């Protein structure tokens, strides 16, 4: 990103020089005012959103397909190889260096733990932050779901947030504004400056907040032509219209925010989700439930054995035969 910021500084210096020269003549002053009204259109292409996508070691096949589907949906992404590091302390230097190398200002990093059982998403704005850590659950890829919808590769999409992400958050929900801006920077494709992008908007990416988690769904905008005949007109002119529907194309996943850091993969923690329960704790409680069930059955078995001993009934003992038993009388 260093050369991008240098290009921006040169652009700002050039615009300031042109504005100084324009102050001397009244004709050029209107041109400089027109540039100030739309500065975003004059920015260098290097500063526009570009996403670096990569994974850590130990990801499963489902995680690889999940990242491949996201890469195909978002044309302004750059997919890199796995990050070959075993310590999370190296994320700050390694990932920011990769983002600077590939001119990316967002980092979408998937970290796998416990041999692929747990998946975490690090979403960071390089190089100064912030960083949001999510727990990714309920992953369903396009090939797994097999929906009938389809969209053009390289197209752009509309990102829709529900009412829970609007301004005026309740107490303790202020972090959703930052989450909304970070997800908007990842899912919103720039209008220009993206290689292989098609000038079509044919999909909707829905982001919904429910039960303290973030649910993401992807839909295709399907437009079907229809012809309606107006009965009131004498000449029976036919008018064409469009019937727009949404068809889901797949890639479902749920994000559970854990922490938000001020810097890029570092810095003080500015938010922590107190309601988050780690996967290790869930697995531990599951094992304790199974152990309690086994202990209960063992206690019941020991109780039956003690009851037989009290009644004088030994387990697996043969019944004594009487003298008039047939086997004894007719030997």
Summarize the topology.
Blueprint: H1 2-24, H2 26-37, E1 51-55, H3 61-73, E2 77-79, H4 91-101, E3 106-113, E4 118-125, E5 131-140, H5 142-145, E6 156-161, H6 175-187, E7 201-210, E8 213-229, E9 238-261, E10 269-272, H7 279-310, H8 326-329
Parallel strand pairs: 1-2, 1-3, 6-7
Antiparallel strand pairs: 3-4, 4-5, 5-9, 7-8, 8-9, 9-10
Helix pairs in contact: 1-2
Structural class: alpha/beta
Strand content: 25-35%
Share of helix among residues?
25-40%
Main beta sheet, described? Answer: 10 strands, mixed
Order of helices and strands: HHEHEHEEEHEHEEEEHH
Q: In terms of per-residue confidence, which ranges show pLDDT below 50 for 5 or more consecutive residues?
A: 1-6, 18-41, 228-235
The coarse overall form would be: elongated
Mean pLDDT, to the nearest integer, reads 79
Cα distance spanning the termini: 102 Å
Please, could you describe this protein's structure?
The chain has 331 residues and is α/β, with parallel strands linked by helices. It has eight helices and ten strands. The protein is elongated, with a radius of gyration of 32 Å.
Structural features:
alpha/beta; 331 residues
Summary of the model, kept short:
The protein has 331 residues and is α/β, with parallel strands linked by helices.
